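User: Second chain of the day. Same drill as before.
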Amino acid sequence: FYIKDRGFIETKDLKVGDELKTANSNPLFISAIATNAREETVYNFEVEGNHTYFVGEDGVLVHNDSYGNNLNKVLGAYYSKDPKASARAELEKSLKDPNLSEAERTKLKADLAREKKLALKEGYSKRQGEYQNSLSGSENLWDKAVSIGKSVFNSAMDLIPSWGAKSVIDAGASLTGKEIKYGWGKNDPRPGGEGMDCSHFTNYVTNESRKTEGKSPIPYNTTESLLSSKDYKQIDLNSMKKGDQFVWRYDYTDKKGNTAPGGHTAFFNEKNGDKAILHSDFGHGPRYSNNYLDDPNWRKANPQYSNIRTYAIRVK
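Assistant: Same format as last time:
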């Protein structure tokens, strides 16, 4: 069973209070454990060597083979036969070089994680087409399979850290609590300096992260130009991962009744709570906060912000 903060563990090691991983991400806790010895016929359900499934009414994530706390082994069925497998093997071999600098090692790890993630997606898409062809004569069966498959696939993808996300959030978090103020049009990360606005903050943090990965910096974009930047791609809001960016566009009306377009941008950190987003906040500077721009109550209390549109982007 996959247990939060413990990974995959054998059934014999389960404890009361353990939180299971479910397809809908709702918390499900073990309240009691009972052992009943009996003889029963069971069937080993398997799809092309994949032994990991969401089972039961609540979709609990389980694995029926020797797992060894290695996620890549479970997901390996999707990419082990991929033509790029040898290239990934070379990357893994290179990581063992004792002469690598820390920056080189970090970059290789990021490249390897990205290649494995892409292979997983490609393998899934290929099999999806194969299954569709085999089920084309079955009424409604393919639609039902797609619905279930998407839930399983998306939940499995959630177990893979978003490439570069941890270093982006770490870089941004390092600027919080440092007396760095919000400064419109400014890009000064020094405590007590001129400050940073939202778009300069996200650009600075992104490039600090890329620096540790040995990647070239991304040119600065205003909040308005982020949506058309060649360095970013727009993604579905429901597929956001830690380290992706929100972009908000809105109309702002001042006290004199003048209305002008405006915008804001922030890193996505978690779905809900006081640390939902990481940004350079109006009047505060770099900090975590709740996602107030998408909060209906905040919108109602701040009518000067109207026609708010929410977008999500990710570095290409």
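The radius of gyration is 23 Å.

User: Great, on to the next one.
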